[in-house]
Design a protein that fits this description.
There is one protein chain. The protein contains no helices and 32 strands. The chain has 272 residues and is mainly β. The protein has a 19-stranded parallel beta sheet that branches.
Length: 272
Amino acid sequence: AELTVKKGATLTIGNNVDITNGKIIIEDGATVNIDTDLYLDKTEILFHNSTVNVSDAHLDNQSKFWIHGTGTFEFINSYFSDGSQIRGVGNKGTTIVDYCIFNDSYIDINNNTLSLNSSVSITNNNFNNSNNYSAISIVNCDTYTIEDNEIDNYISGIEVWNSGHGKGAYYVRDNTIRNIVSTGLTFYGSSGIIENNTIENSLFGIKLLNNSTVELRGNSDANDIYQTQLIQNNDAEEVYISTYSVPTYFHYNVIQDYDNGGVNDPLVLHNN
């Protein structure tokens, strides 16, 4: 079933509502109020130029929150399972995802062109057990903060594409990323500060690609390796740097591999 909420109309979804095999479209100029404990099964909700706050929701079985246009889209303390997702397309507003759990599910904020004034904050979330997805992917986002997330066993960990060119914050920090099939953290044509993360037991640790401008910052006051940025025990390079993507700041990191193969298995590779 499909429901469209037109301009000037208001949809209120009360407490403890279950929706299965549905699609809800919140058009530009419409209003939606969502109470706690919403359960979606094979259901999509599309938000256009909306201001929405969702908390304590459960999305299952490839359910989706689609966000588009301006507005503030806030998702807190919710659970996503079995291919469910938060997906942004042409997003020019503010997206906040905080204290959520993603089990075989993901976040993909993918703007077709650079979206000025777009802001993304993804903090304090857990991502577990996916052989299908990248945990977090942002594309063409003006400013972003990706902080205090735990990512375990995904195809890719965090991907930042063509982002971080605004005047606000652009950080990837204090995340724990491990057991990634491909790369723990990828920057492509992006600017940002990579600080105090733990990235381990993956194929690649960090890849800096296509004219990215980044800082790799550890903690100068650390007393042991676990108090600073730790990139370790990845099968290929711990840090791979393409031409014109050499970090502008590269200090206080611990980069190690207990089974390092010597000259043919570099910890840091600058491919120029």
